[in-house]
Amino acid sequence: MRAAEEALIVVDVQNDFCPGGALAVAGGDAIIPEINAMMRQFPVRVLTQDWHPADHKSFAENHPGAAPFSLTQMPYGPQILWPTHCVQGSDGALFHPRLETAPGDLIIRKGFRPEIDSYSAFFENDRTTPTGLEGYLRTRGVTRLTLVGLATDFCVTYSALDAARLGFAVAVKMSACRAIDLEGSLATACQQMMQAGVDLI
User: Fold this and answer.
1) pTM of the entire structure?
2) Cα separation, 27 vs 22, whole angstroms
3) Whole-angstrom Cα distance, residue 61 to residue 23?
4) Of the candidates 141, 85, 91, which has an alpha carbon nearest to the alpha carbon of residue 117?
5) pLDDT tens digit string along 39-87?
6) Which of 155, 162, 173, 177 is catalytic?
7) Which of 6, 20, 34, 197 keeps 20 to 30 A from 63, CA to CA?
8) Is 155 a catalytic residue?
9) 72 SS3 class
10) 12 is catalytic
11) Would you call 18 a catalytic residue per the annotation?
């Protein structure tokens, strides 16, 4: 068992991000056995869950004529327009059935505000609207985080960078993550994390 101040953050291991899903990450389900084993090793375990309304502004279909993976400008900056995914209450939004969620202490749902996307487990994409995760971890006495899940180059990276900015010691277990790798986004994300002091293990 890890020390009491250590937490595992399991990012978005949901059906829509796994093979067969609306925004599938290649090999996304292959990381589940390793994550399940890690869940038993940490005293604090948090799962995040994308939880979008159908009219979410980050969905390409809600921008007439826009193609998935194109860019648009939002009040908080550039936004990739995604295929519709992880819609509240849908099968795609559910955790993958092989993921052992019972050991989890907390589920953080994000992206539920239609006007703003949310990659990070800590903040919406405006980088200021909090999810409440920081406060929860502080009250549990957590100082060290290990992140796993989907996708390495988006939600995992944004979460890791925010956690480091908040003063947590942060590691990303790369073998328990998979990436979208959109036009070199994985290499860019890894460089950003290393520059922020995140350990890639």
Assistant:
1) 0.96
2) 14
3) 14
4) 85
5) 999 999 999 999 999 999 999 999 999 999 999 999 999 999 999 999 9
6) 155
7) 20
8) yes
9) strand
10) yes
11) no
Pairing of strands 77-80, 106-110: unpaired
**Options 110, 117, 173, 177, the catalytic residue:** 110
Q: How many helices (H) and strands (E) does the chain have?
A: 4, 8
Helical H segments across the chain, by residue range: 32-39, 133-139, 157-165, 185-195
Instruction: Enter the DSSP assignment of 141.
Output: T
Contacts of 172 (CB under 8 A, 6+ apart): 146, 147, 148, 152, 156, 157, 160, 193, 198, 199, 200, 201
pLDDT tens, residue by residue, 107-132: 999 999 999 999 999 999 999 999 99
DSSP string, 80-104: EPBPS--BTTSGGGSBPTTS--TT-
Q: What whole-number distance in Å separates Cα of residue 161 and Cα of residue 153?
A: 11
